[in-house]
Amino acid sequence: MMQLSPKTFCDTFSSVNTSMPILTGMEFMRRPARLSDALLHEYECVSRMAHVRKWDFDLYHFREFIQDPQHAVVITNVQQTIQWVNHGFANMTGYQIQEALGKKPSFLQGKETDPLTRSAIKACLLEEKKFEGKLINYRKDGEPYWCDVRIEPIFNEQQKLVNFIAFEEEIV
């Protein structure tokens, strides 16, 4: 399977009209966060994915979360293969975006990652439920770090599971 760069991946959705905001819920009632050009590009990319794939998803939460460039976001397919990560992921882990695509998020785990937490994540994903917890991940250079993780299943309009999204924040 060919892996696309985030820009190329986003460009495949460029035919979607983005001149009008994509509303998936009650976003129009909230004051949107002001994003830098780089973060705005990431937001627009995920917005296009949500629109094309018909996600039943709160884009407002995503927009608020990525305001901090150190926050990592990982989107996988149903088989938990990474399809998209933001620049915050690269900042947090030391892995370049291209290095993460096509891998499973578990490549960040190691000997100190709690097996019970791993099992809890696996169980939640199999049951198509949200997982929230803390775990030890490893940077590219091998340095361990604590990470607060929230993994949510993403369903389409027919309530069929189509992706997972993980929101990750390093615990300092």
TrEMBL record:
Stored PROSITE patterns: PAC, PAS
PAC domain mapped to chain residues: 129-172
Keywords on record: Chromophore, Flavoprotein, FMN
CDD domains membership: PAS
InterPro entries per UniProt: PAS, PAS-assoc_C, PAS-like_dom_sf
Domain PAS: 58-103
Pfam family, one: PAS_9
SUPFAM superfamilies on file: PYP-like sensor domain (PAS domain)
Name assigned to this protein: PAS domain-containing protein
